[in-house]
Amino acid sequence: MIKKQSVPAATPVNGIIPVDITSAQFKADPFPFYAQLRAEAPVFPIMLPSKQRAWLVTRYDDVVNVLKDERFAKNRRNVMSAEQLKKIPWMPPMFKPLERNMLDLDSPDHTRLRALVHKAFTPRLVEQMREQIQQLTNELLDAVEAKGQMDLLADFALVLPLTMIARILGIPAEDNTKFHRWSNAIVSIKTSGDSLRLIPTIMQFMSYARRKIKERRIHPKDDLITALVQAKDGSDTLSEDEIVAMIFLLLIAGHETTVNLIASGTLALLQYPEQLAKLQNEPELIKPAIEELLRFVCPVETATERYAREDITIVGTTIPRGEMVLAAIGSANRDASYFDNPDQLDIARKNNRHLAFGLSSHYCLGAPLARLEGQIAMSALIQRFPALRLNIEPKEIRWHGSFILRGLEALPVAF
Prior knowledge:
The structure is a single chain. With 415 residues, this protein is α+β, with helices and mostly antiparallel strands. The chain has 19 helices and 14 strands. It has helices spanning 24-28, 31-40, 60-68, 82-86, 109-120, 123-127, 130-145, 152-157, 159-169, 176-187, 192-197, 199-218, 224-230, 240-253, 256-271, 273-281, 286-297, 329-332, 367-384; strands at 43-47, 53-57, 72-73, 149-151, 232-233, 236-237, 306-308, 312-314, 317-319, 324-327, 389-390, 399-400, 407-408, 412-414. The protein is globular and about 60 Å long. Mean pLDDT is 88; it is low at 1-9. GO terms for molecular function: heme binding; iron ion binding; monooxygenase activity; oxidoreductase activity, acting on paired donors, with incorporation or reduction of molecular oxygen.
């Protein structure tokens, strides 16, 4: 049993040496480490690059409980002691509005924001994108077909969801490059030092978002920024800071997850050629295939941070009040208690209760869009290019170091 406050976060626990879960090396294959934790230390303390201790929860049942249990708060300022609050890494005051995003709030604030945003981000809006997604997919594949090769991430997996979320928000196509640059920089943040270096980038983003909000108040359009500006629940509306935070959240969550699904999912199919051939021969399997790839490659490796409202004991380990908890979705999705042969890719898997989009009140609002984009993109890709193959040696594959997400830096392929 791990006693609370008795284990320095960087020392071995039960003989297991902690790792940097944000490193590119770990992202390449985190699953053996998670398997060891599930078996030997299912609630495990780690030290993040920010020098903050966090607790990894790794078994499926426990991950589900963390995602559903109201004792785990999203807003750390609601649960931390005065001493713990002093240790929070300094944040430039101009970043404060970004904390008003749904991922970092609890009820009633979260409930209010989600209700307002849901009125704008409806299934009808997503379904209206189907034809545009298919058309853009075809255009992107047309553009590379004659070359016989591409970086699947830069030329396809990135461009498709980034372009679509920009269109949904109402961002002009010529600004897509800026959007990607901002997003890539933001998801690379690991320490307060990184945050300081990114002050100019985030200020550029916030200034841009405020200009767009002002434009839509004066000249409404048929886009999501206008819908956010106009969203009402009775007399309740979103403040400008809340709209900026929502655009910020949608910019990152609205495309980074799908980029990783398409690129890492394609790599998984190339690594399991019998599954790739099965999907090419049975294209009707694309829906369960996408669900299996979500489970298998885990584009979002851990759920976003939660904080213990009180001392909470899980499997004999006490997590002290105010400390960070990371529900390891990538581990839960490989738990043999819920998945037969969990380390095997099976595109026809039945009863696939993966947790790739989270659970409960913080379930991913953009899940329908990510699924639709993944289904259209990967179906078109493997049918258009039946001889699709890696264009580098497997040892040359590089993963992106990141906190929450899991994705490739590049994926050169030939066809």
